[in-house]
Amino acid sequence: MRILRAIPSEYDRIQRFLEDVYGHSFNYFPSAYPSVWKRQNSDFKNIFVIKEKDKIVSLVRIFPLRTIQNCVEMNLAGIGAVSTLYSHRGKGYMGILLQHTFDEMKRQKFPLSILGGDRHRYGNFGYENGGRVIEITILSRGLKKFGIQAVPARRYDNTNKEVLGKIIKASEKMKYRKKRTAKEFDDVYKRQGINVYYAEEGRNFAFVVVSAIEVKDAGIKNVMEFGGDNKIIPGILQHLIERFGYSGFSIIFPDFSEIPGNLLSLASSWDIRSELMIKIVDIRQTLETLAKREDFLFPDNEELTFTVKDRESVVINKKGRMVKINSGKGKNEVVLTEIEMVRLLFGTSFWAPEGLDKKIIQVLRQFLPLNIFLPPLDCI
Fold first, then answer.
1. In this predicted model, what pLDDT tens digit does every residue of 175-219 receive, in sequence order?
2. Same domain membership, residue 14 and residue 143
3. What is the dihedral of CA 36, 38, 41, 46, to 10 degrees?
4. 324 is a domain residue
5. 122 lies in some domain
6. Quick one: 164 and 264 in the same domain?
7. Is 314 found in the same domain as 260?
8. Is 233 among the domain residues?
9. Among candidates 112, 129, 35, 116, which has minimal Cα distance to 75?
């Protein structure tokens, strides 16, 4: 059996294959995800297939994601388009393809891989729920209670480059985001099912991206992303409520510290959950990247060893302000499976295995868990 890289001439065959497997309509993927699935944006070197008699029967794709995680650049390997023809399931093709992509991730030096999926399906491959989002719900009655007046908003029509430039400038101030080129912003905002609205008051600018299709219970719309002057955003929401009759909006954030105070005050409710599954591809590279973050508060004069069972070990120690991370074993070893290590490093709340020394737990609590966040529009 050979695992092949897709080639550009197979683009149409790949689209028909994916539509068949997922039960989607013609050209669904380039319409729903133009930034990654339009012909010119398809990264064929990261699309892997298995064929039988020259027919694609199984496929998986790596989506390289240049992200900013709490102001630190971190490249993630997104996994998507996981698919096998119904008639060829049960042959182990997907497991073979996924293992191949893990080897490819190591070759391309990705520290982490992320996907959206089922724990029972992907837990066997080292993925576990991780990271967190905080979702707030702002209802029309909350806006009314605080006397929010509508701020007339215009719809971005995908042609005004000056407005797009202001959107990009506002987006780049976010501590958690995917790094996009101007073309990627343009393509993302052309996807089906979203509308981009913006408003200006003097020199102040703000925008919101609202789902045009997904409507939660009781007419609550999803805000897929936003940026700019936080004082203008409630007025944009009120304008959309008055214009379209929505009852409210839900907005997600990576952390409470990232929720503007005025939006939190307007929230009728909030909840915390995990929306990603994470796999540690290279634990040393992962920790070296995380150690650059301001919230990596590893205590002075301490040392820990993290060991992933049947894989590698790394040692973290800190003297003064210098955090050092090296391969090998040292003091205070924490031995965990792949998914347990994800739970420890990136859990929605703090977790440690039973029986771990209390002193080690105290050290772990000082800097874990850390968050990994991907904005909704960049989830494939």
1. 999 999 999 999 999 998 999 999 999 999 999 999 987 676 778
2. no
3. 60
4. yes
5. no
6. yes
7. no
8. yes
9. 112
In the chain, what is the straight-line distance between the N-terminal and C-terminal CA atoms, in Å?
Answer: 28
Phi-psi region of 219 (alpha: psi -120 to 50; beta: other; left: phi over 0): left
Tokens found for residue 268: 């009728």
Are 106 and 156 found together in one domain? no
| All residues at 6 or more sequence positions from 346 whose CB lies less than 8 Å from its CB, including other chains | 130, 131, 278, 369, 370, 371, 372
Say if CB 263 and CB 256 are below 8 A apart: no
Residues 83 and 155 in one domain: no
Q: H or E element: which one contains 345? A: helix 338-346
Residue 165 CB partners (closer than 8 Å, separation 6+): 182
Range of the domain at 9: 3-110
CA angle, residues 277, 308, 106, in degrees to nearest 5 = 65
Vertex 177: Cα angle to 194 and 24 (nearest 5): 40
For residue 12, what are its two tokens? 């149409």
Look up the pTM and report it. 0.94
**What confidence tens digit (pLDDT) does each residue in 253-293 have?**
999 999 999 999 999 999 999 999 999 999 999 999 999 99
Q: Is residue 287 part of a domain?
A: yes
3-state secondary structure of 328: coil
